[in-house]
Amino acid sequence: GIGSRLELQHFRWRWFPAGLKTVRIDIDPTEMVRLKPEVGVVTDAALGTRALIAALEKRISRRADRSGEFIAYSQDAAKALTSVQPQESYLKVIREVLPRDGFFVEEINQVGFTARMAFPVYAPRQYVTCGYQDNLGFGFNTALGVKVAKPDQCVVSVSGDGGFMFGVQELATAVQQGINVVSIVFNNSAYGNVRRDQQQHYGNRLLGADLHNPDFVALAESFGCIGLKATNPAALKTALEKAFAADAPVVIEVPVPTGSDSSPWPFIHPAPPTAH
Q1: Under 8 Å CB-to-CB from 125, ≥6 apart: which residues?
Q2: Same domain, 34 and 124
Q3: What CA–CA distance (Å, rounded) separates 6 from 116?
Q4: Which domain range does residue 35 map to?
Q5: pTM of full prediction above 0.90
């Protein structure tokens, strides 16, 4: 891993071969303690990579160009991810409307999880994530900061209803300070992951997973924001176009029937690959 946290989510994959050896380049020496690599190199990722290439040039022959192979893998992955609905369809619309230099801010929710695999990004630092800290309330609040730092770029955040309510009062800040973020709230009236876990692992005994929410459109308008509602991907496209044209704080509520989201977890913890 080069400049990678080698996240535990992925290192818990059960089908990793026994005795897998890891080499890690990271500027933070404390990261070498977690998921200890066989070889750890503490350095800047760019400097370390250049030095590694220079050293290997003398020892190995150049491989054939594999660009076509990687493009095919990417296309296969994109095709497979179309099964994660409705999240993938909503993400496709957001990517279509958001300018290439715009910023996408996600947090822990069904769309946010899927975005980590299914949302194309065209430049560094334009996909802003809480990573696998997965803290509720990150999305909208962080998007405010992104917009302050990049006032001339479009900024959109995607939150679940539960996460958005952690910082909903900052709609007042957005209006007072003219921070024109577009916030999409996917409202499934639940903490979706908690609810799914309780259904799958605790005999459908639900506790604290279902939510009673406000009318998010009316709530946004009560703060002085623009409130919109979109009930399908096509409607979200229209709402996003209006939101970016308005150049004002906007909340778009997307109602999603409780429990209807496809789980993205088969892609986060995939099954073992089939033998060829």
Answers
A1: none
A2: no
A3: 15
A4: 8-57
A5: no
